[in-house]
Every structure is written in C-alpha cells, then in structure tokens.
C-alpha cells in the first residue's frame, strides 16, 4: 500500500536535507510505486553508523510500497569519492574491494526485505557495467554533457582545488561522472527515478539528474539525508577510539549500545525521530516530559534499544543490556561467556595476566592504580571489587574461583572504573 504522506513523514522526522521538486515527487508516490536507489562504496569491510540514515530511508520507502535498489560501488570504490575529503583517498586493491563488497551485501540484507513478492529489494554492482565500458565511448557519449566550469565550481571540489598542500587528481575528479552514469544506467534498465544519499552527495546526485535529462529527456529526482556531527563538529559515529561500525566483530553490540546511551542530551529526541520507527507524536510527548523523573535517561535507553535491535537483532540487544546491568548495577550472575568476550573485544579496558598476580599488582597493571601503595589504600578504603564483590584484603591473591569461565575477572574501582582481566594459562 502506497502512503501518500511519506515525504511529509520523512520531513517531519528531519530525514530530508534537500529534495528536488518536492510537490511533484509527492504526487508521483501518492498512487504509484517507484524504484529508488542509494549507493555504497566498499571502502572498508563494514558499513558504519553514518550509513544508517540512507538505509533507514530506503527501508521507509520499501515499507510504503516502493522498490529499493542498493548499488554497491565495486567500480567507483576503486577510485573513492572526493566529496568534502581533505586529502586524496588511498587506493584499495581489486581483491579487497571484492571481499568487502560481499561482506557489505550480507550486512545490507539484514535491513531490507529481499524476498517480498511485490517490492523486493535488489542489490546491484556498478562493476558489472563499468567493466564493459570503452573509455573513448564514455568520453564521447557521457563526458560531452558535462562542463568543467560547473564541475570545479562545486563546493566539494572547490575546497580541494584551493588547498595548496592537497589538490585533486583527475582520478578523483572523474568520480562525479561515474556516479552520474550509475543513475543513468539504473534509470534506463531499472526505471529508477529517485536517488537517495547523504547531503555531501548532492553534487553527484544532481550530475546524474542532469545527464538523464540531457540524454533521455526524462525527469528524475534526488533526496539527501543530513550528515550529522557532534558539538565539536566531528562526524557522527567517530569517537576517540574510532568509528562505530555495524559489524559486531568490529564494534561489539555492547559498545554500539553504549554509544547511543552516551549521546548528548540535546540530540535524544532528534535521534529518536531519525533513527527509530516510533511515532513522532509519541516522541514529542516524551520530549515535553524530559525533565520529569530522569525521563531523558529512559528515553536514551529507548533510543539505544531500538537502534541496537535494528542493527544487531534482539539476542545481541539482550546481551548488551545484560552487560550494562552487570557493570552499572553490579550484577554479573546472568552474564554469559560471550558477554565477557564482548567486553574483551572493545567494551572496557582489558589486561592479560598470568596466573600468579596478586590484587595490588593487578590494579597497577590494569591502570586502576598508579602504584602498589595506592592499590593498598584503595583496597583498605573499600573501593575495590572483584566480580562485583567488595574486597578489603590487602594481601589478596587471585584464586580459581575468581576466574569466570576459567579466564575472566571483572576488576572495579568504585562504580564507573572497570578493567577486565583475561587470564593467560601458564604452559
């Protein structure tokens, strides 16, 4: 069933940064199913949370009866999009691109319905057509429709041209034409009439619209979603410890969950609208009550639950909640071995020790203490816990019973400072 108010819904949620011919596209999708696409270049072996808004937008269109197409940039990924990049990307090998492509396809399959009888999602790879293209034909038939004057006036390119230390190579400069050609091919072969992308993709999207209009005399449309940054202007999803990936092996579900729990208070209700499918009226009501009984903390939890479930599923959400409860409420009785493995991966600081260490030395090696004497003071002042149990024995030596699942000990200083000891068996 086609929803006539989809564009209004996207706009109310803040999911639209810019859209072409808004009234026209609203009329088209009111009674018709369209095909739309979004491209993802495989420049790493996983997508990250910066890709969530385009994926959520595709999902919303599919739920409204439209057909989403995911275009993997097996060809364009070999070049790299220069849009708003301060310096030229490192070129990746064909083999890496192929391996990363397969991993990303598997990831995307979790977010869209590829088995719907009416509007199943489709994955394509632009390598399929660029591998067959002749460069002279491309320059004659496609390149002639683009003005260098216009291309270098785009803000994303202009910034690089003005930099004395980093210009822009012809390789990266050509990216704009390649993405425009993608839109042209998808319109021609799959009747795609709408391209979705981040707001940094506007120049590439408009080039595709221009090419289709010049060659095919057809009207197509573009829609961009916002690029988010934190209060310091750092790109959303980038932290001091690195990017927040969608792959659970690169960013554990626990760390993913905690990322959302620790966002700035000012973003909670905005992000609930952007990243969840909760009704906007319900979110507005929650926002009005945010100062009552720590409601904003509960709503952060609601956000973390919804996004973690969307990306990782119910089972891994429950694991993230178990670990959170264990660390913050000192209840580790229900933790599984896989939960400790998440903490070992990236959840909290981790130190590997052999079987002979005492508590004082462990505190120093875990950096919870600066010296054995400081360790002694913390122990006698009742500040140290082993597996959520207070320990005041200054001469304590770890025992086998402390090694959960035979290899993990949770060492804590106060309520918020933790370190996971991972025991190494002596040969």
UniProtKB/TrEMBL annotation:
Similarity-based family: Belongs to the class-I aminoacyl-tRNA synthetase family. TyrS type 1 subfamily.
PANTHER family: TYROSINE--TRNA LIGASE, MITOCHONDRIAL (PTHR11766:SF0), TYROSYL-TRNA SYNTHETASE (PTHR11766)
Assigned EC number: 6.1.1.1
Classification via HAMAP family: Tyr_tRNA_synth_type1
PROSITE patterns: AA_TRNA_LIGASE_I
Binding site for L-tyrosine: 37, 175, 179
Main localization, broad class: cytoplasm
Residues that, per the record, bind ATP: 238
Matching Pfam families: SYY_C-terminal (PF22421), tRNA-synt_1b (PF00579)
Intervals of motif 'KMSKS' region: 235-239
Record's catalysed reaction(s): tRNA(Tyr) + L-tyrosine + ATP = L-tyrosyl-tRNA(Tyr) + AMP + diphosphate + H(+)
Residue stretches making up the Tyrosine--tRNA ligase SYY-like C-terminal domain: 339-421
Enzyme class: ligase
Any one of the GO CC terms: cytosol
Subunit record text: Homodimer.
Stated role: Catalyzes the attachment of tyrosine to tRNA(Tyr) in a two-step reaction: tyrosine is first activated by ATP to form Tyr-AMP and then transferred to the acceptor end of tRNA(Tyr).
Family matches, as InterPro entries: aa-tRNA-synth_I_CS, aa-tRNA-synth_Ic, Rossmann-like_a/b/a_fold, S4_RNA-bd_sf, SYY-like_C, Tyr-tRNA-ligase, Tyr-tRNA-ligase_bac-type, Tyr-tRNA-ligase_bac_1
Species the sequence originates in: Buchnera aphidicola
Motif annotated as 'HIGH' region, chain positions: 42-51
Keywords assigned by UniProt, alphabetized: Aminoacyl-tRNA synthetase, ATP-binding, Cytoplasm, Ligase, Nucleotide-binding, Protein biosynthesis, RNA-binding
Protein name: Tyrosine--tRNA ligase
Subcellular location: Cytoplasm
GO molecular function: ATP binding; protein homodimerization activity; RNA binding; tyrosine-tRNA ligase activity
One GO biological process term: tyrosyl-tRNA aminoacylation
